[in-house]
Design goal:
The protein is of the alpha/beta class. The chain has helices at residues 2-6, 8-20, 25-42, 44-57, 63-89, 92-98, 123-133, 146-156, 172-179, 212-220, 252-267; strands at 99-102, 113-116, 137-139, 163-165, 184-186, 198-202, 205-209, 223-232, 235-240. A hairpin with a 2-residue loop joins strand 8 (223-232) and strand 9 (235-240).
């Protein structure tokens, strides 16, 4: 009973989110826009992280334009969060109407495939689109709150029973799943610390970048197929780009640089939708001052 009351606020929030998934998408997005505006004003520490990232990545923009971009990001961030209620609970026919899938012909048959999924705000919609079509696998970080952990986990395994691996499992389970023919929906563009990372530019600033994607491709013989999800007014567009050629090169820095350059090019096409609330430049090379 004591545990129940401890998590009662979490259960109440989940109940509210479940009710929201019945709303039409335009109304759900309107609620998200209001929440995003409040976040921009009130969540000062996160706003500061967003503005710091934008100042590093878009120095050519005026402060006013970067602030406007940060505002649009907070709006899109809140909208994408509320859209997850649809991913968790909406029917499959509704999701198929909301999430359009393009580029299936770019998925090579008979080969292990790593789907490079940069951290755009719609990446969960991309993951659902993949799991509805393929028996895939991905990474999952358990949440400290068991109520939210249960909801997130259940939402991600709704279709085709995807395998969710932990980062602590290492590369071996991922290699086995790749060789079994499961596409790997992989999100490699976060700062996970200096361990096993190489420092390569991201928008001109050195960023700790995990070279695991190239190593996995080298060991398993997997082909890299970028998978980018864009939020649009009536849902999401998930696109598989052409498979990469001549990758990996066998040089961790060169391979990580190619990945970052690709992500940069896609970020420039929808800058408000990248995950700017993450401290992408938290880990610094030896001797460099902290950024945040």
């Amino acid at each position: 009973m004591k545990t129940f009351f401890k998590y009662l606020p979490s259960l109440a929030l989940v109940g509210l989110l479940w009710l929201l998934h019945w709303l039409p998408l335009p109304l759900l997005r309107a609620v998200g826009a209001m929440i995003g505006a409040v976040l921009f004003v009130c969540a000062r520490s996160r706003r500061r992280i967003v503005l710091t990232n934008l100042s590093l990545c878009f120095p050519e923009l005026s402060e006013r334009k970067r602030r406007r971009l940060a505002w649009r990001h907070c709006i899109a961030f809140a909208q994408a969060f509320l859209d997850r209620t649809l991913l968790w609970w909406a029917s499959r026919p509704r999701l198929e109407r909301l999430i359009r899938f393009h580029g299936a012909e770019n998925l090579p048959a008979g080969k292990p495939v790593i789907l490079l999924a940069p951290h755009f705000l719609g990446l969960d919609a991309g993951g659902i689109a993949i799991s509805m079509r393929y028996v895939a696998f991905s990474m999952y970080a358990h949440q400290k709150n068991p109520v939210f952990d249960a909801v997130l986990y259940a939402g991600r395994i709704r279709f085709n029973a995807p395998i969710l691996l932990s980062r602590q499992d290492g590369l071996r389970p991922a290699i086995r799943a790749l060789k079994d023919g499961r596409p790997f929906y992989y999100l490699p563009d976060m700062d996970l610390g200096a361990r096993d990372a190489v420092f390569v530019p991201f928008f001109g600033t050195l960023a700790a970048t995990v070279p695991a994607m190239a190593r996995l491709a080298r060991i398993s013989g997997a082909v890299i197929v970028p998978c980018v999800t864009r939020m649009v007014p009536d849902g999401y567009e998930v696109t598989l780009d052409a498979p990469w050629q001549d990758y990996p090169l066998g040089d961790d820095e060169a391979d990580a640089r190619r990945m970052n350059e690709y992500i940069e090019s896609r970020v420039r096409s929808m800058p408000e939708q990248y995950y700017w609330v993450h401290r992408r430049f938290k880990t610094r090379p030896p001797g460099e001052a902290k950024i945040y």
